[in-house]
Amino acid sequence: MSRKHKTATTETADAGVGEVLGLYQEIAGAVSGAGLAEAMVRVLDRVCSFAGWPVGYGLVDPLGDNRVEVWHLADDDPARAILQPGAGLVERVLAGGSMVSVEDLAADAELPEAEAAMEAGLRAAYAIPIFAGEEIAAVLAFFAAEPGPMPPGLAEAVEFTAKQLEVIAESEKARRAVQAAARQARAQAVELNRMAAQLRVSGAPAGDGMYDALTGFPRRRLLLDRLQQAFRRCQRNPELQFAVACVGLEGMKDLRDELGLRASEELLLALCRRMVAAVRPADTIARTGEHEFTIILEDTEGLDDARKAAERLQSAICGPYRAETDEVSVSAHIGLALSAASYEHGESILQDALAALRASRAFGDERPRVFDLAGQTRLRSGRVDDREIERAVEDGELLLEYRPVVSLASGRVAGFESHVRWKHPERGVLAPEEFLPESGSGRAASVLLSWTLEQVCRQALEWQSLASGKLPYAAPLLTSEQFFGPELVSATWDALTATGLEGRGLRFVVEESVLMRSPAQAAQVLAGLGALEVGVVIDAFGTSSSLPHLHQLMPAALRIERAFLTGASVAPRKWLVARMVVELARILDAEVHAAGVDSRERLASLFHLGCGFAQGPYFGGGVSAEKTLALLRGGFAAEVEPLLRPGGGVGARRPESAPTVER
Q1: Could you tell me if 424 and 366 lie in one domain?
Q2: Cβ(610)–Cβ(655) under 8 Å?
Q3: Which of 24, 32, 327, 356 could bridge to 371 as Cys pair (CB 3.0-4.6 Å)?
Q4: Domain end call among 160, 175, 190
């Protein structure tokens, strides 16, 4: 691109030599000490005022993402204020790299802005590039009220103006290059420090305890220092934001018991390398617990950016790892909190991220959970009352999410487990555990239960109208408050009577730990439900001591806790527990369910074990009521059929111990 400024040759300028020299002095003074955009504003005013041109226009960074427009307008004429001369003139300057002169706008029909300019009383236009090295850093444009070429004296003054602005543009370009180099150097320094920390060995001197001996990551003390530094930077510049992500690894203790200390430490270091690769060099990863880490995500651009960073981190962590001769999987929950002006200390953001992590673990989230700062601030001033939840029912803010339960004998959908969600207008989508404990009484749980029962019973009737053979059931998940509430049996009877659904079309999913809070009372509740032919699925079976009470509870199904399904080669003792559950279910004439199925390999293992039903990410996540109909029609035969072939899976066989009686 040529740097030569081509000017029109015309008659001698009307302006006197002395006046032009005065203009040069004004321009030189105007650009002194100013940035490029401000300097362009100043020279536009002086050149346009001197030449009598009504409109002047400048465009900074025309080829980049940081375009800035500046204007000179002789008056407040709105027609001129909305004039956009950038399109045609700027494109011609960028294409030719030299000055463009349109002596008569009426004669240039191809110029996009010609018509609008003439309507504003303008007749000629001139534009010139401002270079920074070999790149065009800006464009100046002028519009005259009379047609004709630019007078030579003014043309030289405009070229002089461009030269003065080029000095500023080149200076700013050099400054940006220095700043970029400095940022890169800082990032490299951070990476070198992190690499040095990673090279630390277990026997390295502990020093002041700032770094973890195994991973080399900062410990809590250094984390808090860096957290406060990030917090102060945001206080000084409110436009900056950062986020704190707390990561909790699941199943690591069990893997250590099965693999041994050395192999489990190698697994942890492999996991740490994935975390390092998933974040930016300027981010800080700290080891804050045996199997917990905290990451400061610097310079985030709002909540979406922080959430995407946390999702990348979770994706990097979760997945298969090679541990000696076996392949193992690690899962993680992540709690996320974003910095905000309402925080008074950096450590408060960390505490909120930890709260989000605890909630993520409690609710079994498959994606990072973001701490709801607005909702928590509101709750500190007053709890959610029963009336608000009643209003949510009336306003249609509650919704149900359905997760398919798949038969491993056929691939059909045997039923759907349902989870209620509150689409709160201020706090986003909430699970019952997030709002039921905040109610002042059991009224909210009762209202929610009645609404849920009516919805799932009506939905089950629709499913059964489409099904052939065994009828699918609905299985809402109950909280402790709902299960032990006095209205459960009566509310179930009311819903069945109102909808016409038979009791065997409904099941309740209750965690084993909930039942063990009061085994005697739980047995009474289950007896009342059994009288209605409504069954109960005991979730997370094997995590509590319900074995002595099973003969009283008589569940419809036992759902094996995911921790027991690691695999026979990796965790043989856990696999034996899973087999024991299968045999126990056979004695009780109960189904065997498995949760958390996330791969075909795990599905084949469960099939071989004798598990009759499964659910989990392998069959997709939660869906709306409308989408359940397609799942019922299609099923998952394609996923299950290979297991039914001779030799399907790894030593697979048809599950013999999975009764298909759906209570």
Answers
A1: no
A2: yes
A3: 356
A4: 175
Q: For residue range 300-329, what is the model confidence (pLDDT) as tens digits?
A: 888 888 989 999 999 888 877 776 667 787
Q: Find all residues with CB under 8 Å of 344, minimum gap 6, and list them.
A: none
Side chain identity at residue 497, one-letter code: T
- pLDDT tens-digit readout, 535-566: 999 988 877 666 777 777 889 999 987 767 66
**Same-domain status, 361 and 410:** no
Residue 607 near residue 643 (C-beta atoms within 8 A):
yes
CA distance 376 to 383: 10
Q: Are residues 437 and 539 in the same domain?
A: yes
**Is the CB of residue 541 less than 8 Å from the CB of residue 560?**
yes
Regarding whether 443 and 345 lie in a shared domain, the answer is no
Query: According to the model, what pLDDT value does residue 567 have?
Result: 52
Please, which residues bridge with residue 613 across strands?
A: 407, 593
Contact 105, 83 (CB under 8 A): no
Q: Between helices 252-259 and 261-278, what is the axis angle to 10°?
A: 140
CATH code, 402: 3.20.20.450
Q: Mapped to the 3 state alphabet, what secondary structure does 417-483 carry?
A: EEEEEEEECCCEEECHHHHHHHCCCCHHHHHHHHHHHHHHHHHHHHHHHHCCCCCCEEEEECCHHHH
Amino acid letter for position 159: E
Does the residue 90 lie in any domain? yes
Q: What is the DSSP letter of 367?
A: S
Mean pLDDT value across the chain: 80
CATH number of 318's domain = 3.30.70.270
| The dihedral sign for the CA sequence 299, 305, 307, 312 | negative
pLDDT class of 617 with cuts at 50, 70, 90: confident
Q: How many domains does the chain have?
A: 3
Looking at the structure, do residues 354 and 407 belong to the same domain, yes or no? no
Is residue 185 a part of any domain in this protein? no
Q: Classify residue 2: in a domain, yes or no.
A: no
Q: Across residues 242-263, what is the average pLDDT?
A: 85
Asked if 211 and 352 sit in the same domain, the reply is: yes
Residue pair 41/58 in contact by the 8 Å Cβ criterion: yes
CB 541 within 8 A of CB 513: no
**Does 631 lie in the same domain as 555?**
yes
Residue 6 lies in a domain: no
Closest CA to 652 of 606, 594, 584: 606
Q: Which domain, by its residues, includes 560?
A: 386-644
pLDDT score for 516: 85
